[in-house]
Specification:
Layout: H1 2-29, H2 39-71
Length: 72
């Protein structure tokens, strides 16, 4: 009885390990969970960078303006 039980556990453990390996391979092949930047997204990113740079320039301009006012 113990021998049969051990064989059954080994069978289902191996079966579960095989399923896990297949699932991991599928996830890897389908790039699930990974963010991939598409070529058209590369073009969209500079706009975000430009607006961020513009906002930083405005902040710097305000800072420079404030310093000029303080010096006067």
């Amino acid at each position: 009885m113990n021998l049969s039980w051990g064989q059954m556990l080994d069978f289902y453990t191996d079966l579960n390990n095989a399923r896990k390996e297949k699932d991991e391979k599928y996830v890897e092949d389908q790039y699930i969970g990974e963010e991939i930047i598409e070529p058209d997204e590369h073009q969209a990113m500079p706009f975000a960078t430009e607006s961020k740079q513009k906002a930083e320039d405005e902040d710097t301009g305000n800072l420079l303006g404030a310093l000029k006012e303080e010096i006067k």
